[in-house]
Amino acid sequence: MFGLSTDLTILLIVCLLCACAFEFINGFHDTANAVATVIYTKSMHPTLAVVLSGICNSIGVFIGGIAVAMGIVNLLPPESLVNQDIGQSVAMILSLLLSAIIWNLGTWWLGLPASSSHTLIGSILGVAIVYSLTSAAGDLSMVNWSKASDIGLSLLISPLLGFGLTLAVMLLLKKFIKNQQLFRAPQGNKPPVWWIRGLLVASCAGLSLTHGSNDGQKGVGLIMLILISIAPLHFAVDRNKDIFALENPTLIVLDEMIHLDNTNFQTIERATLDQIKAELFDIKQLFDKHRTERVIPEKEHFSIRKDILFVSSQFTKLKKSGALNKVENSKIRRIDANVKKMKSFTEYAPKWVILIISLSLGIGTMVGWKRIVVTIGEKIGKENLTYAQGASAGFVAASTIGIASITGLPVSTTQVLSSGIAGSMVSSNGVKNLQGGTIKNIAIAWLLTLPVTMFLAGLLYFVFRLFL
Questions:
Q1: Three-class DSSP labels, the chain
Q2: Who wins on pLDDT, 61 or 27?
Q3: pLDDT tens by residue, 275-318
Q4: Which of 124, 224, 374, 381 has the fewest other C-beta atoms within 10 Å?
Q5: Residue 434 backbone dihedrals phi, psi, to 5 degrees
């Protein structure tokens, strides 16, 4: 498979199965977020609800793009993604996958709506930190703290948005809608009137769709990490693109860098600029060398990937250092646009990767959803979930997650919806309408997820490196 030896093929299959297992568990762990509202408002039969959610989750993976997936890939130190030490790569992948699976299963078993996003990101950071500390540099400078802080901020803000926006929506509904049917809890097993039912089913479908578009990308990112790490020559660049289409943006960036005014640069910044130009020149030489046959040998694809990653990361470093503050904005935008074109050759996902993640998430959605549904539907608030509460929380969560997917930030469906349900309950009778014990347990799980998964993944990576 992909020109690998038997041993590496087995390792690749094991890692792929682990990634699919994570996404399968993610499916039934997070299904409750979408189906709880329609089940507890008697809008859909549980079986129909989870089937609808599963289908929408699967579709969501295909329409979500890969911005979040690449955010996951870029959390690891760039050096680890261009290192051809297969043992190290396998140790990293297995460590972060196993730690994420263990924590997700544990919180599911306890019925706690913990965040799969926090779980995965904590696992990746744990591996990245131990990798950096055990590298030649021996410090944490290689961890992508900028990307980690962006993601951490999105994970922190999204539940606050879920709570605040749902509370606001509920207050507005109460002020402007006079039909009290919307604010009633279900009577027995009788479904709501058609228009209320339609709102709730639409919120379930929308939340499932956006969950697939965001969380599905995390699975896609995991698979790309695996493929790049174990079969780097085959997956270093997008084979569906004409590799010579990379030449033009490379030459544009090289020309801009050559004519960049570095008068105000510090010594280290000049050195960084020289390194960027050297990497760009390496790519140019490859095109010059193989111009006649217009085919770049596969063994050179990995070098191209390394050069593109280096140019992108170092140019970002230059911008953040303030070295480019006096450079014309038009020049910076031109470089940015063409670096983005270069990165499109390394930031991609084959259709078959998206398909297997779509199937894993969709099938997982239809399994094991009951434990967390009960927590969301019965244990967050002291009163029965009303139609308005279910629809408000669902639409706010779907909107928040949809925006996050477009902007490339992974957020927690679990935290957004749970917070939304809490906000809807507070809109009725204040904070006293919440069940303190459940809120406390959810908060503890939320606070522990990152440190526990970071520690577990780091420990597993340290152990695996002794044997791989």
A1: CCCCCHHHHHHHHHHHHHHHHHHHHHHHHHHHHHHHHHHHCCCCCHHHHHHHHHHHHHHHHHHCCCHHHHHHHCCCCHHHHCCCCHHHHHHHHHHHHHHHHHHHHHHHHCCCCCCHHHHHHHHHHHHHHHHHHCCCCCCCCCCCHHHHHHHHHHHHHHHHHHHHHHHHHHHHHHHHCCCHHHHCCCCCCCCCCHHHHHHHHHHHHHHHHHHHHHHHHHHHHHHHHHHHHHCHHHHCCCCCCCHHHHHHHHHHHHHHHHCCCCCCCCHHHHHHHHHHHHHHHHHHHHHHHCCCCCCCCHHHHHHHHHHHHHHHHHHHHHHHHCCCCCCCHHHHHHHHHHHHHHHCCCCCCCHHHHHHHHHHHHHHHCCCCHHHHHHHHHHCECCCCCHHHHHHHHHHHHHHHHHHHHHCCCCCHHHHHHHHHHHHHHHHHCHHHECHHHHHHHHHHHHHHHHHHHHHHHHHHHHHHCCC
A2: 61
A3: 999 999 999 999 999 998 888 888 888 889 889 988 998 898 88
A4: 374
A5: -95, 150
Sign of the Cα pseudo-torsion (93, 99, 105, 107, in order)? negative
Cβ neighbours of residue 63 under 8 Å, at least 6 residues apart?
209, 213
Provide the 10 A C-beta neighbour count for residue 383: 11
Q: At a CB cut-off of 8 Å and minimum separation 6, what does 129 contact? A: 140, 143, 454, 458
CB 412 within 8 A of CB 159: yes
The one-letter code for the residue type at 199 is L
Q: Is the distance from CB of 152 to CB of 7 less than 8 angstroms?
A: no
**Cα 5 to Cα 20: distance, rounded to the nearest angstrom:** 22
User: Which long-range contacts (C-beta less than 8 Å, at least 24 apart) are formed by 250-254?
Assistant: 250/280, 250/283, 250/284, 250/287, 250/338, 250/342, 251/284, 252/334, 252/338, 253/280, 253/311, 253/335, 253/338, 253/339, 253/342, 254/280, 254/281, 254/284
Closest CA to 229 of 98, 100, 79: 79
Tell which phi-psi region holds residue 45, choosing left (phi > 0), alpha (psi between -120 and 50) or beta.
beta
- Token pair listed for 428: 């009725």
- 446: burial class by Cβ within 10 Å (0-12, 13-18, 19+)? buried
